[in-house]
Design a protein that fits this description.
alpha+beta; Hypothetical upf0131 protein ytfp; five-stranded antiparallel β-sheet; 18% helix
């Protein structure tokens, strides 16, 4: 049997210090900054939306982290993150991405249209939150679906430099 893919590329609410990190933290064995091709958007619900580029036609990068996950608990970890990311409802889809650092990892791509979403040119959710002081207030005023509620907590993650 092949070894399961035991890495997860995260860029938003699953990064250390963000509101969903406590669900993921028990499964993580190491954390490394990385990036991958794609576009990042802000949703009106207080979380980011990624669209990855598996065709190498987009020069933009999504800044994030590659988390090494414990192989003994990978199935449990992915079941939890699938529920958190709303994969059953189609909010996000789990897929495989190749990072600029040469890693292959699972990640979550937004499952709905991006036409009405706000682009994040830096590709960094953490930088977006730090640079936009009105974001937290707007997030708290937005109507957030119960299954996607966030705390409005800011991340302590500092992103890697943009490689555009």
């Amino acid at each position: 049997m092949d070894d399961p893919l035991c890495q997860l590329f995260v860029y938003g609410t699953l990064i250390p210090g963000a509101e969903r990190w406590p669900f993921l933290e028990p499964f993580v064995t190491s954390v490394e900054p990385d990036s991958t091709r794609g576009l990042l958007f802000a949703t009106p619900y207080g979380y980011p939306a990624a669209r990855f580029d598996g065709t190498a036609t987009i020069d933009a990068r999504i800044q994030g982290l590659v988390l090494a996950l414990d192989p003994d608990t990978i199935d449990e970890c992915l079941a939890i993150t699938d529920r958190l990311e709303g994969t059953v409802a189609g909010v996000y889809h789990r897929l495989v991405v190749d990072t600029d650092g040469g890693q292959t990892a699972w990640s979550y791509q937004y499952g709905f249209g991006i036409e009405q979403l706000e682009p994040i040119p830096s590709g960094s959710w953490a930088q977006y939150l730090d640079l936009d002081p009105d974001h937290e207030a707007a997030q708290n005023e937005a109507q957030v679906p119960a299954s996607s509620a966030t705390t409005g907590a800011k991340s302590s993650y500092s992103s890697a430099p943009t490689t555009m």
